[in-house]
Each structure stands twice: as C-alpha cells, then as structure tokens.
C-alpha cells in the first residue's frame, strides 16, 4: 500500500523538515496493520518525494477480525494489503502526526505557506468521478485513472479501483488532513470499530474545510459507516461551525476585510462594486439575474431588495456559503411570493449546468481569481458558451493596485484563496479573447478611486451579446 507526496518548492528538501523525517535514511514505524516505512526516492533542491509504504499483515488482520466483507471468505480473501484504505489513513496519522497538526520545529515559518504539491496513490477503491467530487472542491487538480480488471483482457472492463494523482498549491497540513479523512471515505469500509471518538476525529481533522465541502453529507456518512446517531452528531457539530462563521459577520463574508487599509474612502470598496454592478444591470434592463459564485449573499441582498429583479438565482460551489446566504436573506420569514423570486443552488462553475440557462444577465463578482488558471477555459465555456446570458458582468482585483495597500508584500495577493490576480493588460486580453470566441462585445472600466499610475483597485468587464462569433 503506497502513497507519495512530492514538492518542487525551493529548496524542495524542506519537505523533510516539515514531515520531521530525514531524507537520508529509511525509517520504520509499527502500526496495528503492520510495519510502515518512510523513505525518499528523490531528495534534492529541485524536487523532493517522500513515500509512505504500509506492509499490511493479512494474517494479523484476519485474526483480529477487523475486515468486514460481504462474502463468506472475505475475512481471508480481500484487497486490504493492496488498496489504500483506512489502514493507510491510520498509518499516515501516526507517521506524520506533527505535520498533520501543522507543527514543525525546524521550519515553523512554512507550516502556513501553500506549497506546490503532488500526491500519488496508485491503487485505491473508488471511481474517478467520486475522486473528482471529493478532492476538486478543496483546490486540487484531480487525475484519476480507472484500473482494468485484467490488462490483458480489456473486454472485462474496469475494476472498482483508481490510480489517483492530485496536484495543487496547499499547505502540507491541509493536504494531509484531506487524505486522512477522504481515503477512508473512498474505501467506504473502515477496518475498526466506530464509536463517538470517530466524530471527534472527523470534526478535528476536517476543521476549516469539511463544513463548507459540497459533499459534506456524503463524506460524513461514509466516514462514520452510516451509523445514524454518529452521523447526526457530526452534522450537528459541523452546523455549529457554520453558525460560528455566520456570527463572525463581515470577516467571513467579505474578502476586503483581510486587506490592509489603503487611502480613506467614504464608501467601502465592496459596496462600490455592488453599486456598479447594479447600475449595469439596470442599464441593461435585466429582470432575471444569476449571481454566479454568490458566496455569502452580499449581492443577492441588494438584488432581492429591488423588485425590478423578478427572478434571482444564487449559485456557489460551497454549501456553507449558500447556508450563510439563506440566513442573511431570512428566507424562512418571507412570504411565498417573495421566496419564489430567489433560488439558491449548489454547483461548480467549471461544469455546464442547465439551471444557469435562461437568464438576462449573469454576474461573476470577485469569482474568477478563485479558479485555477487551467480551469478558466471550462468556466468560460460553462458561462459564455452554455448558460449564454445576454449580459455578463465580471469584476476582479487589479493586481497593479496592490502596491497602494500599506504593508502588502510585493507579489502578494489580496486573499489567501486567490489563485492569481490579473493586471489590467492581462484582464483586457482574456476578456477580448472570450468575447471573440463566444460572440460578446466587451467594455472594461474601473471601480474605486482611480490612481493615475496603477488604475482602480477593481476592474470590471461588461460582456454584451452582439459581436460576431
């Protein structure tokens, strides 16, 4: 049973310090399933790869009756020694305990720094579709290849296993927590007795991401082996986490709260963005509007307050964000006619979704910078090609303006989840390319106080149907 983690961070051998495992020697650790070994197939300044190998003792597992299979000889004939499962998750938690907890004696400054990571699990239970559903919302690029039942007999089809590769820029502790929780979820057959301790373990390991995951309920059910009382307890505790985030107010819902203070402004930049977007929608005569990537619902509140907008859709990949939006809108207190004006849906904007079609206008307010650049063509196709509203309004930070924020380091981005930030020329070029491809005219303006040298803090593009495709 094998798992590898690689990085190209410079120097890449910092990975050894973060894991507290020396690249120069092979180390052995005892686990309940058998010995686990940690070694480094490669360790130099350019690339470092650590391998965790779990040598499962099948006889010991059978004696312990820790395997639940649905056929008579399942205790003795099974895939436990070969396919990644809760056994590997337990080994990972024991061997990399300090890194999983975000601690490093030798490199404490790197524990909170996103690193370029590649994770490989050559054999695990689960379909490519399930791997994508579980890992993609967490910021991973997912490559999951189905494994054949027999390479020499392709007509037999695929086995219920996949070869999984994850790539992304995440902190090492976040990456380990994702694996620690989701490997047993993919396997869906924990090897040990499930008790209330497992709820604590799940909530603790999933802190900061599980409550917001769009497949949260699926993860909770499979992790807890569908034990009804434990699943109910876990959902309640995750709901409390969401509740605490709601109580934090603007610090949760408004990215600009994280920014250093620029020049004094009478109106916050977030409010000025919404004012500018509403002005465009009014000018275009839009009455059916989709807020794509609606987050906690700040723009939805403004749209809902204006009865000129007769049909409103809020869409987001995060169920947590949608729950916050629903609470802010106070939909449970509205009358039937009011509630019928607005719909909230969970969806990923990098996939086509027929529910997003049929609107006069769509808004992407501070959304595009949260998408990994390789996924931008998919977003453009889903919004401009498939949903294809008459008007699309898009806002995004102007990277050139960042130098005007006091205390903001060179090259930094405005929010920890931004995958990139465009300067004005790059934004204009991308918008022109999409306009030409999908048949939109494009007009670009700035939002916020304009600086003669670096422009405005926010840049806005208005796409209008009419150009030749």
Automatic annotation (TrEMBL):
Keyword Methyltransferase part of the UniProt annotation: yes
Positions of the Hen1 N-terminal domain: 1-238
Cofactor: Mg(2+)
Superkingdom field: Bacteria
Record keywords, A-Z: Magnesium, Metal-binding, Methyltransferase, RNA-binding, RNA-mediated gene silencing, S-adenosyl-L-methionine, Transferase
Record Pfam families: Hen1_L, Methyltransf_23
EC numbers for this chain: 2.1.1.386
InterPro entries: 3'-RNA_MeTfrase_Hen1_bac, Hen1, Hen1_N, Hen1_N_sf, SAM-dependent_MTases_sf
GO biological process, one term: regulatory ncRNA-mediated gene silencing
Signal peptide positions (record): none
Record's catalysed reaction(s): small RNA 3'-end nucleotide + S-adenosyl-L-methionine = small RNA 3'-end 2'-O-methylnucleotide + S-adenosyl-L-homocysteine + H(+)
Coiled coil location: none
Molecular function GO labels: metal ion binding; RNA binding; small RNA 2'-O-methyltransferase activity
Family: Belongs to the methyltransferase superfamily. HEN1 family.
Protein name from the UniProt record: Small RNA 2'-O-methyltransferase
Organism: Phytomonospora endophytica
């Amino acid at each position: 049973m094998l798992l590898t983690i690689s990085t190209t961070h410079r120097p890449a051998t910092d990975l050894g310090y973060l894991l507290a495992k020396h690249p120069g020697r092979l180390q052995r650790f005892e686990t309940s399933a058998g010995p686990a070994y940690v070694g480094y197939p490669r360790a130099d300044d350019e690339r470092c790869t650590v391998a965790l190998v779990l040598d499962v003792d099948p006889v010991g597992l059978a004696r312990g009756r820790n395997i639940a299979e649905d056929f008579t000889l399942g205790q003795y004939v099974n895939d436990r020694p070969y396919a990644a499962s809760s056994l590997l998750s337990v080994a990972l938690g024991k061997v990399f305990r300090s890194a999983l907890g975000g601690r490093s004696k030798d490199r404490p400054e790197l524990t909170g720094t996103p690193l370029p990571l590649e994770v490989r699990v050559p054999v695990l239970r689960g379909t490519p579709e399930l791997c994508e559903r579980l890992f993609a919302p967490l910021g991973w690029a997912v490559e999951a290849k189905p494994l054949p039942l027999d390479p020499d007999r392709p007509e037999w089809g695929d086995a219920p296993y996949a070869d999984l590769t994850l790539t992304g820029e995440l902190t090492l502790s976040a990456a380990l927590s994702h694996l620690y929780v989701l490997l047993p979820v993919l396997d869906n057959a924990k090897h040990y007795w499930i008790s209330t301790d497992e709820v604590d373990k799940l909530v603790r390991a999933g802190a900061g991401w599980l409550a917001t995951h769009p497949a949260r309920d699926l993860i909770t059910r499979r992790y807890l082996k569908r034990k009804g009382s434990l699943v109910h307890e876990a959902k309640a505790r995750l709901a409390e986490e969401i509740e605490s985030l709601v109580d934090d107010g603007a610090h949760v819902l408004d990215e600009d709260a994280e920014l250093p203070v620029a020049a004094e402004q009478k109106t916050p930049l977030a409010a000025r963005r919404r004012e500018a977007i509403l002005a465009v929608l009014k000018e275009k005569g839009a009455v059916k509007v989709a807020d794509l990537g609606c987050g906690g619902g700040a723009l939805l509140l403004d749209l809902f307050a204006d009865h000129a907008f007769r049909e409103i859709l809020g869409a987001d990949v995060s169920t947590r964000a949608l729950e916050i939006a629903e609470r802010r809108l106070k939909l449970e207190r509205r009358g039937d006619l009011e509630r019928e004006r607005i719909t909230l849906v969970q969806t990923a904007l990098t996939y086509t979704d027929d529910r997003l079609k049929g609107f006069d206008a769509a808004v992407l307010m501070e959304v595009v910078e949260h998408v990994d650049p390789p996924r931008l063509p998919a977003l453009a196709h889903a919004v401009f090609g498939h949903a294809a509203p008459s008007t699309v309004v898009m806002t995004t930070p102007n990277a050139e303006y960042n130098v005007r924020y006091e205390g903001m380091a060179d090259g930094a981005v405005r929010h920890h989840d931004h995958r990139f930030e465009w300067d004005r020329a790059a934004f204009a070029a991308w918008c022109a390319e999409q306009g030409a491809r999908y048949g939109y005219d494009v007009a670009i303006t700035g939002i916020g106080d304009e600086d003669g040298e670096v422009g405005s803090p926010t840049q806005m593009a208005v796409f209008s149907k009419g150009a030749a495709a």
